[in-house]
Design goal:
612 residues, alpha+beta, SH3 type barrels, 3 domains, five-stranded antiparallel sheet, 21 helices, globular
Length: 612
């Protein structure tokens, strides 16, 4: 096995991928398997480079002293005017072949220098013009080591080029031919995309292999426990429900209804209605296309439910077999997860998820090995994110409302049930109305599609998020109109924060140059993206999480305070968002480096202002 040349912590010159420019970097680690160095640039950007793309600083200093040993004016004035241009100076005669080689080397150097200038313009890591819209000066946090070296090399080489052109003995025809060939080469290099070297996932989340293994069993068990608790007359935490018989948890007809629901939503998703948009660039620069028609699917679903109710179909069948539907969804999500992992084993390296490529089966199975698994143009992860589970959540809530009216002989639903259904319906419709915004979320851009998202989308969302409505069927709660009004105001505040913060972020990501966003200030990063420091994102680092938590509390309050069970959702949601915030912090610090540290100094609070 070859030994490494550069040590950890050593300051060297690293070539920027896709260019001929070298920047001052620090070696942070070395991968013995892939033979790649992880280096850190001055702006905090971390990349994996081959040993051939790294040079010691001394080699650049030596080159600098050679190129600047004499000025172009001194070299030109030392030449005798009486001497033939084809003859070298006395004492320095060389053969014709040596002279030609010397000239070719010089021309090669000039070509490389010109090419470096071209690549400098095209491929130099961009940095947002931070204050362009605010009338403030641009940020000067740039790594200019290679620019200094290039400038020092450029002056003498341009002088050599002028002399060679002036005294060249080759025909103009040959020169023109060479220029055309070189022009083609230069054009080819200019359009060549930057290649990123895929790396294994080194930092494991969710407790690593042991944690993910336990969660594969813990998540279904939690859903089963919550639903059994809601069925009890006394759903206290200490009153553990008896375990049902295994045969009572499964029914073929229920599983058939679930499959029918899943494939009906798939048909709605494939309908050629709605606009087609591009997602964010992948690691290889490619952009996937997505059809935005979630709202159309919701309207078609509502029409289908209306037809069923018109023909007096008993929708409370969902309530009567709720536990069996949850088990059917869990079995389907497990089968889907196995299929996703098996197919990911044949996926190209560049299509694997950055967070699910650890090489450990259970970890990659849980987090998702492939980033965007598709069957043709049908994106499985994108479909499951918003369709079967999210729309199914609304249908389940409606079934609980009808079940409450039937069981308690009510002519109209209770005020508590109306509030829960209305708040959560608004949330789902908002998500479908702003469907395009999900393309910028962590679930789509970073997380693979494995058991975590498959179970979360198809089981956790519809059967745990509807816990308040399910609870109210067996435990009716009466609230007054003033209390209902106060809860409604709280939900509206949470929704306003959630929606306005997400709109600011999504609009800025899509088009930072939009004149409507001219009042927003931001910190530039080496990736070319900006970090907002005004509006909601200057208030706390994750204002959308704050709005989400306020809404979650408003959904639980109509259930009263007799039991903590209906507040499981808000407690879980706080834990989820705090954990997700920690993941975001870790990824952003790696991605944005010093710019993220500046942002954290500017916006010190994470989710809760003046608290956390």
């Amino acid at each position: 096995m070859p030994s490494r040349k550069f040590a950890d912590g050593e300051v060297v010159m690293g070539r920027w991928p896709g260019s001929v420019l070298y920047y001052e970097v620090q070696v942070t680690s070395y991968d013995d398997v892939a033979h790649l160095y992880t280096v850190k640039y001055k702006d905090g950007t971390e990349l994996a480079l081959k040993e051939s793309d790294i040079r010691s600083q001394s080699s650049f200093k030596h080159r600098k002293s050679q190129s600047s040993s004499s000025s172009p004016s001194r070299r030109s004035s030392s030449r005798s005017r009486s001497r033939s241009p084809g003859r070298p100076a006395r004492g320095r005669r060389r053969s014709a072949s040596q002279s030609r080689e010397h000239k070719d080397d010089k021309k090669k150097t000039i070509q490389e220098t010109s090419l470096a200038l071209l690549v400098l313009v095209l491929f130099k890591p961009s940095e947002n013009n931070t204050k362009r819209y605010n009338g403030e000066p641009e940020s000067t946090e740039k790594n200019d080591t290679s620019c200094v070296i290039l400038e020092q090399k450029l002056k003498p080489d341009l002088e050599v080029k002028r002399v060679l052109e002036q005294y060249s003995l080759r025909s103009r025809k040959d020169d023109k031919k060479k220029e055309e060939i070189y022009s083609e080469k230069k054009t080819f290099v200019a359009v060549k995309p930057i290649e990123k070297v895929p790396t294994k996932t080194k930092e494991l989340e969710f407790g690593g292999r042991i944690g993910t293994f336990m969660m594969v069993f813990l998540l279904p068990a939690t859903v089963l426990y919550l639903l059994l608790m809601c069925k009890q007359d006394d759903p206290s935490l200490l009153n553990f429900p008896p375990l049902p018989a295994l045969e009572s948890l499964w029914e073929g007809r229920v599983f058939g209804v679930f499959l029918l629901w899943f494939f009906l939503q798939a048909v709605f998703h494939l309908l050629p209605v709605g606009k087609v948009v591009e997602g964010l660039p992948l690691s290889n620069g490619r952009k996937l296309q997505y059809r935005i028609n979630g709202l159309y699917a919701f309207i078609l679903t509502a029409a289908a439910i209306g037809v069923l109710l018109y023909f007096q179909f008993e929708l409370h069948y969902l309530y009567d077999h709720f536990l069996q539907f949850a088990v059917s969804a869990a079995v389907f999500s497990l089968a889907l997860s196995i299929y996703l992992y098996v197919r990911s084993l044949k996926a190209p390296e560049e299509e694997l998820a950055p967070g699910g490529n650890s090489g450990y089966f259970i970890y990659d199975f849980f987090t998702g090995h492939e980033l965007n698994p598709r069957i043709g143009s049908f994106d499985l992860k994108y479909f499951c994110e918003l369709r079967p589970g999210l729309i199914g959540w609304v249908v389940i809530n409606l079934a609980m409302l009808l079940a409450e009216m039937k069981i308690h002989n009510l002519s109209v639903p209770s005020l508590s049930m109306i509030l829960v259904n209305s708040f959560q319906l608004l949330y789902v419709v908002d998500a479908l109305w702003n469907e395009e915004a999900i393309l910028t979320t962590m679930d789509i851009t970073h997380d693979g599609f494995g058991f975590m998202l498959a179970f979360g989308d198809l089981v956790w969302v519809p059967f745990v998020y509807s816990l308040q409505a399910f609870y109210l069927v067996g435990h009716p709660t009466t609230i007054s109109w003033p209390v209902a009004a106060a809860i409604t105001v709280l939900n509206c505040i949470g929704y306003y924060i959630f929606r306005s913060a997400n709109s600011q972020k999504n609009n800025f990501r899509r088009n930072p140059a939009d004149p409507k966003l001219a009042n927003l200030k931001f910190i530039p990063t080496a990736t070319g993206k900006g970090l907002l420091v005004t509006g909601w994102w200057g208030f706390v680092r994750h204002p959308n999480y704050l709005g989400d938590i306020i809404m979650a509390l408003a959904w639980s309050l109509p259930c009263g305070f007799n039991h903590i069970l209906p507040y499981f959702y808000v407690i879980y949601f706080i834990c989820l968002l705090v954990h997700r915030e920690a993941r975001d912090e870790h990824h952003c610090k790696q991605k944005y480096g010093l710019a993220w540290e500046r942002y954290c100094q500017r916006v010190p609070y994470r989710i809760f202002p003046y608290i956390y």
